[in-house]
Amino acid sequence: MEQQKYKFHIQGMHCKSCVLLTESELKEFPYISDVKASLKSNLVEVTGDFGEKTPEQIALEISSVLHPHGYTLSADKIEKKINWGEFKIAIPITILFVAFYVFLQKIGLVNLINVNKVSYSTAFIIGVIASLSSCMAVVGGLLLSMSASFAKDGDKFKPQIMFHVGRIVSFFVLGGVIGAIGAVFQLNTVWISILSFVIAIIMLILGINLLDVFPWAKRLQPGMPKFLSRHAMGVSKLNHTLTPALVGIATFFLPCGFTQSMQIYTLSTGNFMTGALIMLSFALGTLPVLGLISFSSLSIGKNKNAGIFFKVAGLIVILFAIFNLINALVVINILPPIFNF
Prior knowledge:
Layout: E1 4-11, H1 16-26, E2 32-38, E3 43-48, H2 55-62, E4 72-74, H3 87-106, H4 120-132, H5 137-151, H6 158-185, H7 189-211, H8 226-234, H9 243-250, H10 257-269, H11 272-294, H12 306-331
Antiparallel strand pairs: 1-3, 1-4, 2-3
Helix pairs in contact: 1-5, 3-12, 4-11, 6-9, 6-10, 6-11, 7-10, 7-12, 10-11
């Protein structure tokens, strides 16, 4: 029978990780031969042998694998409603966070944001935010898929441990490698400031996307080359006892803007150990939530207060970005010092 093509509207995609996860999940259907998802148009095109099924029937059937990830598929366009009222709760919470942060800075307990040195606590906090955001959806999806596969054979715990150990070790080692590469280039203050500026822009885009009120911002998110990301996803399909550890290692190469911003900063450190510890701190920040995902169907996106959480996280990330933007401009003497904490 001739191959058929259908386009469906999809809601819930926030980044390139979502595109990758959507395509990967839908390709698991035996009658689907090709999938192309678009973050720009919020459409997914599927090609395959669907027999006499109507578009509505196809949408209902294939959306079953996407619902657990927080995506909604339909034949007809669904108008997205923005809940502006959530900002009434999110803004005060963000203000309290900022006040607490300034207090910790004043007493010298932490140094969360500094253009010349992103502290390990900053990397850890960014890791926590990343693990709860849509940018880590693909990692959670890989983890759940792998867990389900090994659970069928009665192995519920060892694969989870191997995944997390592989992820943490790879972030430490590969972070160190990136830091060492930075040492070869001997980056001066101007180049470090430029990299800090790039990090701030990426963080700003990520923060705006977390607010989920400006659809155009989704198109601006950077990502790993698609072929590299696809190979990283493909590791999870390998049938080998070491697959969980390899999947953990592969997550270093998946398209998460938070991960990439930390990788760019690591390059600017020009030091193996500093780079290794920065990426290790980031990975440890993601560990609590990913650990819960290992043994549950946890999804912040399903929670009734998810909108408030994402807006708080978005505002905090935007503030991180603004601090870094200003500090980068201060270092190269475009702006005078503004913050004294």
